[in-house]
Amino acid sequence: MLNKNIQTFIACDAEYDDAKVVLFGAGFDGTTSFRPGTRFAPAVIRSESFGIETYSPYQNKDMLDYSYFDSGDLELPFGSVRRTIADIAQRSDTILNDGKLPFMIGGEHLVTLGSVMAVKDKYEELYIVHFDAHADLRDEYLGQPLSHACVLRRCHELVGDGHIFQFGIRSGDRDEFFFADEHTEMHKFSFDGLEETVEKLKGKNVYFTLDLDVLDPSIFPGTGTPEAGGVSFDELRKAVTLVCSSLNIVGCDVNELSPTYDQSGVSTAVACKVIREMLLALS
Question: pTM, whole model, 2 decimals?
């Protein structure tokens, strides 16, 4: 008997009822400020994930020993930013109401807002851990408050002061850094202070958002706004493993792969491996 060819992220083909973690893709790049193309990331990540193993020698864990469900990509209306955010929030809300953890693959970073909105509706007290090259704290970008350059500012309006912890930040306008001094806990350039932050947040509800351009572009050139001076793959791997294995993660995402800017496929392979390590650390 023949079955439908349904492509999932590697080993994420369990039954929905059995899965603790549910993936979904949000391939949107409607507010990208420099080079577009992140809309293609979820599909390419799924396809290329079969180039890596299900087993992680770093954690000595195998995805085949756990149950993950890939619910596919949302069909997003590229002409409507607000409808896109609402659709993402609805998918996250469905997953949360079924007692599962939403794991979103973007897309540009604005997609995080929709998922955070849904998680905040469920968990009144919510903290955000944010890895990125960019502060994303602008109040508006070219007159638009809904932009990937503003996403953490919009999230701050939801969670308030002292609830956002940022790492790896090395780019932004001056006002963003002034805002961070007053309203977020920003750790510039690296993951220094992450262990202390994890200890502080243990037992609290945490949303984890990862912009892959936190990596140095020599490792991860396939992104829309590359910023020199980023972290290494091994530094990122250790950091995501620490966050996902130590904290009560109630939602998470991985964003800003733009695969067309790295024809070698290395950036996509890096994204796949980071997602594998996150999934295993969450299990």
Answer: 0.96
